[in-house]
Amino acid sequence: MVFTFKTRWGGTSVNPSISKRQRAGRPDLVNRCIGLGYIGLMVALPILAISARAGGEGLGHLWQNVVQPDALFSLRLTFLMALVMIILNAITGTAMAWILIRYHFPGQSLINALIDLPFAIPTIVTGLMLVVLYGPQSSIGTFLTSHGVEVIYAKPGIVLALLFVTFPFVVRTVQPVLMEMDRDMEEAAVTLGAKRWRVFLRVVLPSILPAVLTGAGQAFSRALGEFGSVVMVAGNIPMKTQVAPVFIYGELESYNARGALGVSMVLLVSSFLILLLLNLMQNWGRRDGV
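Given the sequence above, the corresponding structure tokens read:
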């Protein structure tokens, strides 16, 4: 209902407060429709399409495609490499965030900018850089091979590729938390005689742990679907270095869409569950904070 009032000259005018609320409500509704429509078109619809295609012949056929030896090995290798990656990423990413926030040194702005470089360059370029650096024709690769360490076309190369493309996640989630932390408790602990490493473990780590877990979860989900860099360094060797995304690509090239769909659904469901768990953890954290 719109209320009017008589003007000074005998006319009528719309109540300003009511009209402003109504005018503000319409754009808000339009924005919501646009946002939900975009999410539905770009995210939900493709997910529904691949889910319907994968389950078209029943879950039994889908499961048979997943437990094939090559498919099952690729999934195990993918999850194992991603797990090793997030352990290293959580440690190095937290350390880098700590250094960037708590210390000031020449070139700090450059290093801070380089952290986001993996988001900017194509992942295939990442794989090429690693091959050039650690490949059999490089000096470092020759030295490592002579000592029995294989990087390219082996599992260490996969971990390196995943570390490079997912490194910014932990750093960028931990940095804001460190910036907002009150350092009074740290200073009090140091005053009472606690060593630096003990202060970090007992005071700092509990505060930044949710951010570390969030970044690690995002990195893990991202690593499950990494293709461009891994296909360069892994060599696509079945039952040795063939990760799930490369297996999917190989199945599609062999015109075996069923095998590709089975492994794709495992990666899709796994990534969705990880992101859903992260959102639930963040919601619980906000409630506890309130």
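The CA atoms of residues 227 and 245 lie 6 Å apart. Try to locate this feature in the token string yourself.
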